[in-house]
Design goal:
Helix content: 25-40%
Number of strands: 13
Structural class: alpha/beta
Strand content: 25-35%
Radius of gyration: 18 Å
Distance between the termini: 36 Å
Largest sheet: 9 strands, mixed
Length: 209
């Protein structure tokens, strides 16, 4: 599918395997999510626009490339997406941070919004929406909808694990959005959990049940 990128880097796959292990504790899980996000972000941000600026080195003055335009915005889908925010900020410390709060109805599995706050001038920024899991695709689709309604045009979506059903739904709803997945899993079960997956990412990041 156009604009869909499934990561195959050995380091990403190795760390995802560690995430899947049910014996991986909260502290290690949290660190792994951040590390995977950095590795994925490095690839997802390879098309950032740059412009030559003049600087003075210890040897001479030269023109050298730096990121141009408005700083990008990282937008986590609450709450699990918070685990990937520092990944992007590690790569681009000046990035602005927005938040989209969604919860999934336990019966219909459809998303419901409870909070949305985005940086100003979102129409001039590259928006990177982050959520570790792309399951049904409902929350991801809604998050992109919110960003677009507030003027967002250049949008990327990053997830660590995706189900085919969710990936298909997000791509069909927003074919212009670049989607980066750490791994594409087999399917959703009857409770809309990704299989084999890794459980509830939010619970494992924050140590809740």
């Amino acid at each position: 599918m156009e604009n869909v990128y499934i990561m195959d880097h050995p380091l990403i796959q190795h760390k995802i395997s560690m995430l899947r292990n049910k014996s991986t504790g909260t502290n290690e899980f949290r660190k792994l999510v951040e590390e995977i996000g950095i590795l994925m972000g490095y690839e997802a941000l390879r098309d950032l626009p740059v412009e030559d600026v003049e600087i003075e080195t210890p040897i001479e003055t030269c023109m050298t490339p730096m990121i141009s335009g408005k700083k990008l915005a990282v937008i986590p889908v609450l709450r699990a997406g918070l685990g990937m925010v520092n990944s992007i900020l590690t790569l681009v410390p000046s990035a602005k941070v927005g938040h989209v709060g969604l919860y999934r109805d336990p019966v219909t599995h459809e998303p419901h919004e409870y909070y949305c706050k985005l940086p100003e001038s979102i129409d001039e920024r590259i928006a990177v929406i982050v959520d570790p899991m792309l399951a049904t695709g409902g929350s991801a689709e809604a998050a992109v909808d919110f960003v677009k309604k507030q003027g967002g045009k250049n949008i990327k979506f990053m997830c660590i694990i995706a189900a085919p059903e969710g990936l298909k739904r997000l791509h069909e709803a927003h074919p212009d959005v670049q989607i980066y997945c750490g791994h594409l899993d087999r399917e959703l079960n009857d409770h809309a959990y990704i299989c084999p997956g890794l459980g509830d990412a939010g619970d494992r990041i924050f140590g809740t049940m």
